Amino acid sequence: MLNTISQWGALVALGLSIGNLLWAWVSRPARDVGKRVDEANDRIEEAFEGLKGHDRRIQRVEDDMRHLPTKEDLHALSTKVTGVKTELDIIARVVTRIDEFLRSRP
Q1: What angle do CA 54, 66, 52 make, to 5 degrees?
Q2: 91 versus 17: which is more confidently predicted?
Q3: Is the pLDDT of residue 2 over 80?
Q4: Contact at 8 Å (CB) between 100 and 92?
């Protein structure tokens, strides 16, 4: 009877070890895939952090660009400066003529 129990125990142990071996063999690809998925998620999170940094920098540049003059603004300013220069040239000629007139008087 002890011999029969021992044989049955060995048979159960063999069955458990074969089951464990099959389980490890079947679940190994799933563990590998799970590990690769975790690594991919980590890389994706790092990429999103980098994109957030780029987004912040781009937003700062766009905020600064709103306050800068446009091409049309610079052209209008150039036109106004040219007009002021023309008026100053006229005034300088008039002042020069007045100066010459005052110096020529005895």
Answers
A1: 15
A2: 91
A3: no
A4: no
* 22 contacts: CB under 8 Å, gap ≥ 6: none
0.85 surpassed by pTM:
no
Q: CA 29, 35, 38 angle in degrees (round to 5)? A: 140
- Place 90 in a pLDDT band, splitting at 50, 70 and 90: very high
Q: What residue segments make up the domains of the chain, in order of their start?
A: 70-106
- Tokens read off for 13: 């142990």
DSSP string, the chain: -HHHHHHHHHHHHHHHHHHHHHHHHHHHHHHHHHHHHHHHHHHHHHHHHHHHHHHHHHHHHHHHHHHS--HHHHHHHHHHHHHHHHHHHHHHHHHHHHHHHHHH--
Q: Model confidence over 54-74: pLDDT tens digits?
A: 899 999 999 888 888 999 999
Tokens of 70: 């446009």
